[in-house]
Amino acid sequence: MTFQVAELNVGSKPDLYAQLATQVSSLLEGERNFIANAANFSALLYHSLPEVNWVGFYLYTTTWWRFSSSLLTSMLTEFLKL
User: Fold this and answer.
1) At a CB cut-off of 8 Å and minimum separation 6, what does 82 contact?
2) pLDDT tens across 8-20, in order?
3) In whole angstroms, what is the distance from residue 53 CA to residue 55 CA?
4) What's the whole-model pTM score?
5) Alpha-carbon 15 to chain mean position
6) Structure confidence by residue, pLDDT tens digits, 7-59
7) Residue 52: Cβ-neighbour burial (10 angstroms; 0-12, 13-18, 19+)
8) DSSP string, 6-41
């Protein structure tokens, strides 16, 4: 599967975040691995947001395999305030 980052039409922050949310949804569709989704989400933000020099996650858990895509989706929804 390939994914092409769409150029964002930057207007207001809510517009930017709505466009990012659409891209994130497409990017994560069909992938259930939490680490892969976190990495792909970080890469999308890094390449889409202006003037950003680092995007990533610090994960600390003793049961990392219990993370799911639905957890990441709910985290992203809260982050994007949609």
Assistant:
1) 17, 18, 21
2) 777 788 888 888 8
3) 7
4) 0.64
5) 16
6) 777 778 888 888 888 888 888 888 888 888 889 999 988 888 878 888 888 87
7) exposed
8) PPP---SHHHHHHHHHHHHHHHHTT---HHHHHHHH
